[in-house]
Specification:
Distance between the termini: 33 Å
Protein name: Coenzyme F420 hydrogenase/dehydrogenase beta subunit-like protein
Shape: globular
Pfam families: FrhB_FdhB_C (PF04432), FrhB_FdhB_N (PF04422)
Domain Coenzyme F420 hydrogenase/dehydrogenase beta subunit C-terminal: 162-308
Domain Coenzyme F420 hydrogenase/dehydrogenase beta subunit N-terminal: 78-154
Oligomer: single chain
Radius of gyration: 20 Å
Bound molecules: flavin-adenine dinucleotide, iron/sulfur cluster
InterPro entries: Co_F420_Hydgase/DH_bsu_N, FRHB/FDHB/HCAR-like, FrhB_FdhB_C
Largest sheet: 8 strands, mixed
Length: 398
Protein backbone atom coordinates (compact mmCIF):
# COMPACT_ATOMS: atom_id res chain seq x y z
CA UNK A 1 0.00 0.00 0.00
CA UNK A 2 1.30 3.46 -0.81
CA UNK A 3 1.33 5.94 2.04
CA UNK A 4 -1.32 8.59 2.31
CA UNK A 5 -0.48 12.24 2.76
CA UNK A 6 -2.64 14.41 4.99
CA UNK A 7 -5.54 15.41 2.81
CA UNK A 8 -5.65 18.82 1.32
CA UNK A 9 -9.27 19.86 1.44
CA UNK A 10 -10.20 18.45 -1.92
CA UNK A 11 -13.67 19.25 -3.17
CA UNK A 12 -16.52 16.77 -3.05
CA UNK A 13 -18.07 15.88 -6.39
CA UNK A 14 -21.48 17.33 -7.21
CA UNK A 15 -24.41 14.89 -6.95
CA UNK A 16 -25.01 13.12 -10.24
CA UNK A 17 -21.56 13.86 -11.68
CA UNK A 18 -19.46 11.03 -13.09
CA UNK A 19 -17.43 9.28 -10.39
CA UNK A 20 -13.80 8.15 -10.64
CA UNK A 21 -14.85 4.46 -10.77
CA UNK A 22 -17.22 5.39 -13.65
CA UNK A 23 -19.99 2.82 -14.21
CA UNK A 24 -18.54 0.56 -11.51
CA UNK A 25 -19.20 3.18 -8.81
CA UNK A 26 -21.36 1.80 -5.99
CA UNK A 27 -22.19 5.28 -4.68
CA UNK A 28 -20.49 4.46 -1.38
CA UNK A 29 -20.46 8.16 -0.52
CA UNK A 30 -16.70 8.77 -0.28
CA UNK A 31 -16.71 11.02 -3.34
CA UNK A 32 -19.48 13.15 -1.82
CA UNK A 33 -16.89 14.37 0.69
CA UNK A 34 -13.45 15.96 0.62
CA UNK A 35 -12.06 12.47 1.30
CA UNK A 36 -12.39 12.04 -2.45
CA UNK A 37 -8.76 13.07 -2.21
CA UNK A 38 -8.01 9.40 -1.40
CA UNK A 39 -10.28 7.84 -3.98
CA UNK A 40 -7.57 6.20 -6.11
CA UNK A 41 -6.38 4.27 -3.13
CA UNK A 42 -9.63 3.85 -1.21
CA UNK A 43 -12.21 2.96 -3.85
CA UNK A 44 -13.05 -0.74 -3.78
CA UNK A 45 -13.54 -0.73 -7.54
CA UNK A 46 -10.34 1.11 -8.44
CA UNK A 47 -7.89 -0.44 -5.99
CA UNK A 48 -8.87 -3.84 -4.61
CA UNK A 49 -6.62 -4.41 -1.57
CA UNK A 50 -8.57 -6.72 0.69
CA UNK A 51 -5.62 -8.87 1.76
CA UNK A 52 -3.56 -5.84 2.85
CA UNK A 53 -6.48 -4.25 4.69
CA UNK A 54 -7.33 -7.55 6.40
CA UNK A 55 -3.84 -7.58 7.87
CA UNK A 56 -4.30 -4.05 9.19
CA UNK A 57 -7.80 -4.63 10.58
CA UNK A 58 -7.45 -8.19 11.91
CA UNK A 59 -3.69 -8.69 12.30
CA UNK A 60 -3.64 -11.30 9.51
CA UNK A 61 -5.01 -12.02 6.08
CA UNK A 62 -7.21 -15.05 5.41
CA UNK A 63 -5.54 -18.43 4.99
CA UNK A 64 -6.45 -19.69 1.53
CA UNK A 65 -5.66 -23.29 2.51
CA UNK A 66 -8.41 -23.27 5.13
CA UNK A 67 -11.80 -23.61 3.41
CA UNK A 68 -13.80 -21.55 5.92
CA UNK A 69 -11.18 -18.79 5.91
CA UNK A 70 -11.03 -18.78 2.13
CA UNK A 71 -14.81 -18.45 1.81
CA UNK A 72 -15.80 -16.37 4.81
CA UNK A 73 -12.66 -14.40 5.67
CA UNK A 74 -10.67 -14.03 8.90
CA UNK A 75 -12.73 -15.03 11.94
CA UNK A 76 -12.29 -16.09 15.55
CA UNK A 77 -15.76 -17.47 15.91
CA UNK A 78 -18.85 -18.23 13.84
CA UNK A 79 -22.36 -19.18 15.00
CA UNK A 80 -26.10 -19.10 14.33
CA UNK A 81 -28.05 -16.66 16.51
CA UNK A 82 -31.39 -14.99 16.92
CA UNK A 83 -32.83 -12.50 19.35
CA UNK A 84 -35.01 -13.93 22.10
CA UNK A 85 -37.29 -10.95 21.49
CA UNK A 86 -36.93 -9.88 17.86
CA UNK A 87 -37.16 -6.19 17.06
CA UNK A 88 -40.40 -5.49 15.23
CA UNK A 89 -39.74 -4.33 11.68
CA UNK A 90 -36.03 -5.27 11.61
CA UNK A 91 -34.68 -7.12 8.57
CA UNK A 92 -34.24 -10.33 10.55
CA UNK A 93 -34.31 -10.35 14.35
CA UNK A 94 -32.54 -7.00 14.76
CA UNK A 95 -29.15 -8.13 16.10
CA UNK A 96 -27.45 -5.28 14.21
CA UNK A 97 -29.71 -2.59 15.67
CA UNK A 98 -29.45 -4.11 19.16
CA UNK A 99 -25.65 -4.00 19.17
CA UNK A 100 -25.67 -0.39 17.98
CA UNK A 101 -28.20 0.63 20.67
CA UNK A 102 -26.12 -1.03 23.39
CA UNK A 103 -22.97 0.72 22.23
CA UNK A 104 -24.68 4.11 22.42
CA UNK A 105 -26.50 3.42 25.68
CA UNK A 106 -23.34 2.20 27.41
CA UNK A 107 -21.37 5.21 26.13
CA UNK A 108 -18.91 3.00 24.21
CA UNK A 109 -19.46 5.20 21.15
CA UNK A 110 -20.84 8.70 20.71
CA UNK A 111 -22.42 8.13 17.32
CA UNK A 112 -23.50 5.38 14.89
CA UNK A 113 -23.33 5.69 11.12
CA UNK A 114 -26.41 3.96 9.76
CA UNK A 115 -29.00 4.46 7.06
CA UNK A 116 -32.56 5.59 7.56
CA UNK A 117 -34.99 6.22 4.70
CA UNK A 118 -36.54 9.45 3.49
CA UNK A 119 -40.06 10.39 4.58
CA UNK A 120 -41.43 10.05 1.06
CA UNK A 121 -39.90 6.70 0.11
CA UNK A 122 -39.22 3.71 2.37
CA UNK A 123 -36.48 2.44 0.05
CA UNK A 124 -34.66 5.73 -0.52
CA UNK A 125 -31.55 5.59 1.68
CA UNK A 126 -30.69 8.49 3.99
CA UNK A 127 -27.39 8.00 5.82
CA UNK A 128 -27.18 9.60 9.27
CA UNK A 129 -25.00 9.68 12.37
CA UNK A 130 -27.41 8.41 15.03
CA UNK A 131 -26.86 9.73 18.56
CA UNK A 132 -29.74 7.93 20.27
CA UNK A 133 -31.27 4.44 20.26
CA UNK A 134 -34.40 5.88 18.64
CA UNK A 135 -32.35 7.14 15.72
CA UNK A 136 -30.64 3.73 15.39
CA UNK A 137 -33.97 1.94 15.44
CA UNK A 138 -35.29 4.29 12.77
CA UNK A 139 -32.53 2.86 10.54
CA UNK A 140 -33.53 -0.79 11.05
CA UNK A 141 -34.36 -2.95 8.00
CA UNK A 142 -32.36 -3.13 4.74
CA UNK A 143 -32.59 -0.38 2.18
CA UNK A 144 -31.95 -2.72 -0.77
CA UNK A 145 -30.44 0.11 -2.77
CA UNK A 146 -26.94 1.57 -3.19
CA UNK A 147 -26.50 3.82 -0.19
CA UNK A 148 -23.93 6.62 0.15
CA UNK A 149 -23.18 5.85 3.82
CA UNK A 150 -19.74 7.49 3.67
CA UNK A 151 -21.27 10.81 2.62
CA UNK A 152 -21.43 11.65 6.34
CA UNK A 153 -17.63 11.40 6.78
CA UNK A 154 -17.14 15.18 6.80
CA UNK A 155 -19.57 15.48 9.71
CA UNK A 156 -17.32 13.33 11.91
CA UNK A 157 -14.58 15.92 12.17
CA UNK A 158 -17.03 18.81 12.25
CA UNK A 159 -18.87 17.36 15.22
CA UNK A 160 -15.63 16.36 16.93
CA UNK A 161 -16.68 12.74 17.39
CA UNK A 162 -13.96 10.54 18.85
CA UNK A 163 -15.64 7.13 19.26
CA UNK A 164 -17.76 5.90 16.43
CA UNK A 165 -19.57 2.78 15.20
CA UNK A 166 -20.05 2.43 11.46
CA UNK A 167 -22.64 -0.02 10.09
CA UNK A 168 -22.14 -0.77 6.43
CA UNK A 169 -21.68 -3.14 3.50
CA UNK A 170 -18.38 -4.32 1.97
CA UNK A 171 -17.60 -1.58 -0.54
CA UNK A 172 -18.34 1.14 2.00
CA UNK A 173 -16.14 -0.56 4.59
CA UNK A 174 -13.20 -1.05 2.19
CA UNK A 175 -13.11 2.68 1.48
CA UNK A 176 -13.61 3.47 5.17
CA UNK A 177 -10.67 1.27 6.22
CA UNK A 178 -8.38 3.16 3.86
CA UNK A 179 -9.30 6.62 5.21
CA UNK A 180 -9.84 5.45 8.80
CA UNK A 181 -6.66 7.02 10.10
CA UNK A 182 -7.55 10.41 8.61
CA UNK A 183 -10.81 10.76 10.51
CA UNK A 184 -9.34 11.95 13.82
CA UNK A 185 -11.07 9.15 15.76
CA UNK A 186 -9.81 7.55 18.95
CA UNK A 187 -11.82 4.41 18.38
CA UNK A 188 -13.67 3.05 15.37
CA UNK A 189 -15.91 -0.04 15.50
CA UNK A 190 -17.18 -1.58 12.29
CA UNK A 191 -20.35 -3.69 12.19
CA UNK A 192 -20.89 -5.17 8.74
CA UNK A 193 -23.54 -7.11 6.89
CA UNK A 194 -22.92 -9.32 3.87
CA UNK A 195 -24.22 -7.73 0.68
CA UNK A 196 -24.94 -8.89 -2.85
CA UNK A 197 -27.03 -7.94 -5.90
CA UNK A 198 -27.76 -4.40 -4.83
CA UNK A 199 -29.55 -2.01 -7.16
CA UNK A 200 -30.17 1.65 -7.83
CA UNK A 201 -33.56 3.00 -6.75
CA UNK A 202 -34.80 2.69 -10.37
CA UNK A 203 -33.40 -0.85 -10.61
CA UNK A 204 -35.25 -1.76 -7.43
CA UNK A 205 -38.52 -0.57 -8.94
CA UNK A 206 -37.93 -2.76 -11.99
CA UNK A 207 -37.08 -5.75 -9.81
CA UNK A 208 -40.24 -5.31 -7.70
CA UNK A 209 -42.42 -4.81 -10.75
CA UNK A 210 -41.11 -7.86 -12.62
CA UNK A 211 -41.08 -10.16 -9.59
CA UNK A 212 -43.79 -9.24 -7.06
CA UNK A 213 -47.53 -9.31 -7.66
CA UNK A 214 -47.98 -6.16 -5.57
CA UNK A 215 -44.81 -4.08 -5.95
CA UNK A 216 -46.17 -0.98 -4.19
CA UNK A 217 -46.88 -2.69 -0.89
CA UNK A 218 -43.52 -4.44 -0.43
CA UNK A 219 -41.97 -3.44 2.91
CA UNK A 220 -38.94 -5.66 2.67
CA UNK A 221 -37.60 -8.71 0.89
CA UNK A 222 -34.83 -11.26 1.21
CA UNK A 223 -33.36 -14.03 -0.96
CA UNK A 224 -33.97 -16.81 1.57
CA UNK A 225 -32.22 -20.07 2.34
CA UNK A 226 -35.31 -21.95 1.09
CA UNK A 227 -34.42 -20.83 -2.47
CA UNK A 228 -37.31 -18.37 -2.62
CA UNK A 229 -37.50 -14.60 -2.50
CA UNK A 230 -39.74 -13.63 0.43
CA UNK A 231 -41.55 -10.33 -0.04
CA UNK A 232 -43.15 -8.93 3.11
CA UNK A 233 -46.13 -6.69 2.35
CA UNK A 234 -47.66 -3.81 4.31
CA UNK A 235 -50.48 -6.01 5.62
CA UNK A 236 -47.96 -8.49 7.04
CA UNK A 237 -48.52 -11.13 4.35
CA UNK A 238 -45.52 -12.94 2.84
CA UNK A 239 -45.28 -13.59 -0.91
CA UNK A 240 -42.76 -16.28 -1.94
CA UNK A 241 -41.27 -16.47 -5.44
CA UNK A 242 -38.85 -19.32 -6.26
CA UNK A 243 -35.36 -18.21 -7.39
CA UNK A 244 -35.67 -20.51 -10.36
CA UNK A 245 -38.78 -18.68 -11.54
CA UNK A 246 -37.13 -15.24 -11.60
CA UNK A 247 -37.29 -13.62 -15.00
CA UNK A 248 -33.51 -13.60 -15.39
CA UNK A 249 -33.72 -12.35 -18.98
CA UNK A 250 -35.51 -9.20 -17.78
CA UNK A 251 -33.48 -8.87 -14.62
CA UNK A 252 -30.03 -9.17 -16.16
CA UNK A 253 -29.37 -5.44 -16.19
CA UNK A 254 -31.08 -4.69 -12.92
CA UNK A 255 -28.17 -5.32 -10.59
CA UNK A 256 -25.71 -2.43 -10.37
CA UNK A 257 -22.45 -2.96 -12.34
CA UNK A 258 -20.58 -2.44 -9.03
CA UNK A 259 -22.38 -5.44 -7.53
CA UNK A 260 -21.78 -7.49 -10.68
CA UNK A 261 -18.05 -6.97 -10.12
CA UNK A 262 -17.88 -7.29 -6.33
CA UNK A 263 -16.02 -10.12 -4.60
CA UNK A 264 -16.51 -8.96 -1.02
CA UNK A 265 -19.85 -10.61 -0.36
CA UNK A 266 -18.95 -11.39 3.29
CA UNK A 267 -17.68 -7.95 4.30
CA UNK A 268 -14.11 -9.08 4.94
CA UNK A 269 -12.97 -5.94 6.75
CA UNK A 270 -15.69 -5.46 9.38
CA UNK A 271 -14.92 -6.33 13.02
CA UNK A 272 -18.19 -8.23 13.32
CA UNK A 273 -20.48 -9.47 10.54
CA UNK A 274 -24.18 -10.23 10.95
CA UNK A 275 -25.98 -11.90 8.04
CA UNK A 276 -28.12 -15.00 7.62
CA UNK A 277 -26.89 -17.17 4.78
CA UNK A 278 -24.54 -19.43 6.80
CA UNK A 279 -27.32 -20.30 9.26
CA UNK A 280 -30.45 -22.40 8.98
CA UNK A 281 -33.73 -20.79 7.99
CA UNK A 282 -35.01 -18.42 10.68
CA UNK A 283 -31.58 -17.84 12.23
CA UNK A 284 -28.97 -15.14 11.69
CA UNK A 285 -25.31 -15.87 11.06
CA UNK A 286 -22.59 -14.17 13.06
CA UNK A 287 -18.89 -13.93 12.38
CA UNK A 288 -16.60 -12.43 14.99
CA UNK A 289 -13.52 -11.36 13.04
CA UNK A 290 -11.34 -9.79 15.75
CA UNK A 291 -11.24 -8.60 19.39
CA UNK A 292 -13.32 -5.51 18.71
CA UNK A 293 -15.94 -7.75 17.16
CA UNK A 294 -15.84 -9.92 20.28
CA UNK A 295 -16.38 -6.88 22.48
CA UNK A 296 -19.39 -5.84 20.40
CA UNK A 297 -20.90 -9.32 20.36
CA UNK A 298 -20.58 -9.65 24.15
CA UNK A 299 -22.93 -6.67 24.55
CA UNK A 300 -25.93 -8.64 23.25
CA UNK A 301 -25.03 -12.17 24.33
CA UNK A 302 -27.73 -12.19 27.01
CA UNK A 303 -30.40 -11.05 24.50
CA UNK A 304 -29.87 -13.86 21.98
CA UNK A 305 -29.99 -17.62 21.61
CA UNK A 306 -27.05 -19.15 19.78
CA UNK A 307 -26.20 -22.53 18.29
CA UNK A 308 -23.31 -23.93 16.27
CA UNK A 309 -23.35 -23.56 12.49
CA UNK A 310 -24.06 -26.68 10.42
CA UNK A 311 -23.04 -27.66 6.90
CA UNK A 312 -25.05 -30.16 4.85
CA UNK A 313 -25.41 -31.23 1.23
CA UNK A 314 -23.27 -30.61 -1.82
CA UNK A 315 -23.59 -27.37 -3.76
CA UNK A 316 -21.19 -28.02 -6.60
CA UNK A 317 -23.51 -29.50 -9.23
CA UNK A 318 -26.20 -26.89 -8.64
CA UNK A 319 -23.63 -24.10 -9.05
CA UNK A 320 -22.14 -25.62 -12.22
CA UNK A 321 -25.60 -25.96 -13.76
CA UNK A 322 -26.59 -22.43 -12.83
CA UNK A 323 -23.67 -20.91 -14.80
CA UNK A 324 -24.95 -21.53 -18.38
CA UNK A 325 -28.59 -21.14 -17.23
CA UNK A 326 -27.92 -17.63 -15.97
CA UNK A 327 -25.84 -16.81 -19.02
CA UNK A 328 -28.64 -17.78 -21.38
CA UNK A 329 -31.27 -16.03 -19.25
CA UNK A 330 -33.30 -19.21 -18.83
CA UNK A 331 -36.60 -18.79 -16.97
CA UNK A 332 -38.52 -21.86 -15.89
CA UNK A 333 -42.32 -21.93 -16.02
CA UNK A 334 -43.65 -21.14 -12.54
CA UNK A 335 -44.88 -24.69 -11.81
CA UNK A 336 -41.46 -26.13 -12.65
CA UNK A 337 -39.70 -23.44 -10.65
CA UNK A 338 -41.87 -24.20 -7.62
CA UNK A 339 -41.23 -27.90 -7.94
CA UNK A 340 -37.51 -27.39 -8.26
CA UNK A 341 -37.60 -25.09 -5.23
CA UNK A 342 -39.30 -27.77 -3.14
CA UNK A 343 -36.89 -30.52 -4.23
CA UNK A 344 -33.78 -28.45 -3.71
CA UNK A 345 -35.01 -27.26 -0.32
CA UNK A 346 -35.28 -30.91 0.82
CA UNK A 347 -32.00 -32.20 -0.55
CA UNK A 348 -30.08 -29.00 -1.23
CA UNK A 349 -27.23 -27.34 0.62
CA UNK A 350 -27.85 -26.06 4.14
CA UNK A 351 -25.97 -23.87 6.62
CA UNK A 352 -22.41 -23.09 5.55
CA UNK A 353 -22.87 -25.16 2.39
CA UNK A 354 -25.76 -22.85 1.39
CA UNK A 355 -23.49 -19.83 2.00
CA UNK A 356 -20.86 -21.48 -0.24
CA UNK A 357 -23.56 -22.12 -2.87
CA UNK A 358 -24.46 -18.43 -2.86
CA UNK A 359 -20.83 -17.27 -2.90
CA UNK A 360 -19.89 -19.67 -5.71
CA UNK A 361 -22.88 -18.67 -7.87
CA UNK A 362 -22.19 -14.97 -7.45
CA UNK A 363 -18.41 -15.15 -7.82
CA UNK A 364 -18.60 -17.20 -11.04
CA UNK A 365 -21.22 -14.83 -12.47
CA UNK A 366 -19.20 -11.77 -11.43
CA UNK A 367 -15.92 -13.19 -12.70
CA UNK A 368 -17.50 -13.62 -16.13
CA UNK A 369 -18.94 -10.12 -15.94
CA UNK A 370 -15.54 -8.54 -15.22
CA UNK A 371 -13.84 -10.73 -17.83
CA UNK A 372 -16.31 -9.62 -20.49
CA UNK A 373 -16.77 -5.99 -19.56
CA UNK A 374 -13.50 -4.95 -17.92
CA UNK A 375 -10.90 -7.56 -18.99
CA UNK A 376 -8.04 -5.17 -18.13
CA UNK A 377 -9.16 -5.21 -14.48
CA UNK A 378 -9.55 -8.97 -14.11
CA UNK A 379 -6.16 -9.78 -12.65
CA UNK A 380 -5.88 -7.06 -9.99
CA UNK A 381 -9.51 -6.62 -9.15
CA UNK A 382 -10.34 -10.25 -8.38
CA UNK A 383 -8.84 -11.20 -5.00
CA UNK A 384 -6.84 -14.44 -4.78
CA UNK A 385 -9.46 -16.18 -2.64
CA UNK A 386 -12.09 -15.46 -5.30
CA UNK A 387 -9.83 -16.77 -8.08
CA UNK A 388 -9.44 -19.97 -6.09
CA UNK A 389 -13.19 -20.31 -5.58
CA UNK A 390 -13.99 -19.66 -9.25
CA UNK A 391 -11.33 -22.13 -10.42
CA UNK A 392 -13.46 -25.02 -9.09
CA UNK A 393 -15.89 -24.52 -11.97
CA UNK A 394 -15.91 -24.71 -15.72
CA UNK A 395 -16.76 -21.34 -17.19
CA UNK A 396 -17.69 -20.61 -20.80
CA UNK A 397 -14.67 -19.48 -22.84
CA UNK A 398 -16.29 -16.20 -23.80
P1 LIG B 1 -31.47 -4.57 11.38
O1 LIG B 1 -31.45 -4.48 12.87
O2 LIG B 1 -32.76 -4.48 10.65
O3 LIG B 1 -30.47 -3.42 10.83
C1 LIG B 1 -30.14 -3.30 9.48
C2 LIG B 1 -28.97 -2.32 9.37
O4 LIG B 1 -28.53 -2.32 8.01
C3 LIG B 1 -29.32 -0.89 9.72
O5 LIG B 1 -28.52 -0.48 10.80
C4 LIG B 1 -28.98 -0.06 8.48
O6 LIG B 1 -28.22 1.08 8.82
C5 LIG B 1 -28.14 -1.01 7.63
N1 LIG B 1 -28.42 -0.88 6.21
C6 LIG B 1 -29.63 -1.01 5.61
N2 LIG B 1 -29.53 -0.86 4.29
C7 LIG B 1 -28.22 -0.62 4.02
C8 LIG B 1 -27.49 -0.37 2.83
N3 LIG B 1 -28.08 -0.35 1.63
N4 LIG B 1 -26.15 -0.14 2.92
C9 LIG B 1 -25.55 -0.18 4.13
N5 LIG B 1 -26.18 -0.42 5.30
C10 LIG B 1 -27.51 -0.64 5.25
N6 LIG B 1 -26.94 -11.31 4.38
C11 LIG B 1 -26.64 -12.55 3.96
O7 LIG B 1 -26.32 -13.41 4.77
N7 LIG B 1 -26.67 -12.85 2.61
C12 LIG B 1 -27.01 -11.94 1.66
O8 LIG B 1 -27.06 -12.26 0.47
C13 LIG B 1 -27.30 -10.60 2.08
N8 LIG B 1 -27.61 -9.65 1.17
C14 LIG B 1 -27.81 -8.35 1.60
C15 LIG B 1 -28.02 -7.34 0.66
C16 LIG B 1 -28.17 -6.01 1.08
C17 LIG B 1 -28.37 -4.94 0.04
C18 LIG B 1 -28.10 -5.67 2.47
C19 LIG B 1 -28.23 -4.22 2.94
C20 LIG B 1 -27.92 -6.69 3.41
C21 LIG B 1 -27.78 -8.03 2.99
N9 LIG B 1 -27.56 -9.06 3.92
C22 LIG B 1 -27.27 -10.33 3.49
C23 LIG B 1 -27.63 -8.81 5.39
C24 LIG B 1 -29.01 -9.19 5.98
O9 LIG B 1 -30.05 -8.99 5.04
C25 LIG B 1 -29.37 -8.36 7.23
O10 LIG B 1 -29.14 -6.99 6.98
C26 LIG B 1 -28.53 -8.74 8.42
O11 LIG B 1 -28.71 -10.10 8.73
C27 LIG B 1 -28.89 -7.89 9.65
O12 LIG B 1 -30.23 -8.12 10.04
P2 LIG B 1 -30.78 -7.41 11.36
O13 LIG B 1 -32.23 -7.79 11.56
O14 LIG B 1 -29.84 -7.70 12.48
O15 LIG B 1 -30.66 -5.86 10.91
FE1 LIG C 1 -16.13 7.16 -5.17
FE2 LIG C 1 -17.23 5.20 -3.67
FE3 LIG C 1 -17.95 5.56 -6.24
FE4 LIG C 1 -15.53 4.57 -5.70
S1 LIG C 1 -17.50 3.58 -5.22
S2 LIG C 1 -16.01 6.17 -7.21
S3 LIG C 1 -15.05 5.70 -3.79
S4 LIG C 1 -18.30 7.01 -4.53
Amino acid sequence: MTSIHPHSKAKALKPGSRRPAKELCSECGLCDTYYIHYVKEACAFINQQIAELETIAHGKSRNLEDENDCYFGVHQEMMAARKKEPIEGAQWTGIVSSIACEMLDKGIVEGVVCVQNTKEDRFQPMPVIARTSEEVLAARVNKPTLSPNLSILEQIKESNLKRLLVIGVGCQIQALRTVEKELGLKKLYVLGTPCVDNVTREGLQKFLETTSQSPDTVVHYEFMQDFRVHFKHEDGSIEKVPFFGLKTNKLKDVFAPSCMSCFDYVNSLADLVVGYMGAEFGWQWIMVRNDKGKEMFALVEDQINTKPVISQGDRKQAVQQSIPAYDKGVTLPMWAAKLMGVVIERVGPKGLEYARFSIDSHFTRNYLYVKRNHPEKLDNHVPNYAKKIVSQYQLPDK
